[in-house]
Amino acid sequence: MKEKIINILSSLPVQVLCRFILGGLFIYAGIHKVADPHGFARIVYNYQLLPDTLVTTLAVVMPWVEIMAGLFLVAGIFKRTSAVVLSSLLLIFTIAISINLIRGLSFDCGCFSTVVTESGSDPLGLLIRDILLLIPGFLIIFFPNTKEVPVQACLF
After folding, report:
1. Rounded to whole angstroms, how far apart are CA atoms 123 and 106?
2. How far apart are the first and last CA of the chain?
3. Residues 28-73 pLDDT 10s
4. Where are the alpha helices (DSSP H) in the chain?
5. What angle do CA 64, 70, 71 make, to 5 degrees?
6. Which residues does 36 contact at the CB level (< 8 Å), separation at least 6?
7. Rounded to 5 degrees, what angle do the CA atoms 98, 103, 106 make?
8. Nearest residue to 62 (alpha-carbon basis) of 130, 19, 110, 13
9. Phi and psi angles of residue 28, each rounded to the nearest 5 degrees, phi first
10. What is the tally of structural domains in the chain?
11. What Å distances lie between residue 141 and 28, 86, 90, 127, 131, CA to CA?
12. CB distance 57 to 108 below 8 Å
C-alpha cells in the first residue's frame, strides 16, 4: 500500500501538476511585485519585521527570485532546487504572517497585489493558503519522478 501511494505521488501527472501550480503561482505573484517595486516595498515595510535598510533590497530581489524559481520549476529545470527555494519562501511568509497574527497587526500580504488596503488581508486565511501551497512543493522535493526525462536532455 505504501509503495502504491509513493508511486502515485511521484507519478509524472502529479509532479507536473504540482510544478505548474507552485511555479505558476510564484511567476504570477512575482510579476505584480516587479511591476510595482515601490508598492511592494511599502507592503514589506508594513510587516514591521525587517530593518528599513533591508526592505528595499528585499522588495527588489525577492520578486525576481520568485519568477526565476517559478520559471525553472514550470520548465522542469532544477525542479527540486526550485521547489526548495519556493517552499522556503512559503515557510518564511508563513512565519511572518504568524508573527503579525500574534501581534494583532493588520497588514496586506503582498502576495498577488501591491495595493495597500485599510482592512488588510485575512491572516488566518493566508496561513491556511500558504500551508496548503507547501504540499505541491513537498511532493516535488520528497517524491520526485525518477523516470521523467530532463528538459536539458531534450535540448540536444
Report:
1. 8
2. 39
3. 999 989 999 998 898 888 888 899 889 999 999 999 999 999 999 9
4. 2-9, 12-35, 37-46, 52-75, 79-103, 123-142, 151-154
5. 90
6. 114
7. 85
8. 110
9. -60, -45
10. 1
11. 22, 11, 14, 21, 15
12. no
Residue 145 region, left (φ>0) first, then alpha (ψ -120 to 50), else beta? beta
Tell which residue, 81, 91, 95, 96, has the closest CA to residue 141. Answer: 81
The amino acid at 44: V
Q: pLDDT digit string (tens) for 129-146?
A: 889 999 999 999 999 887
pTM: 0.84
- Cell numbers describing residue 95: 512565519
CB count, 10 Å around CB of 61? 10
Residues spanned by the domain of 150: 2-154
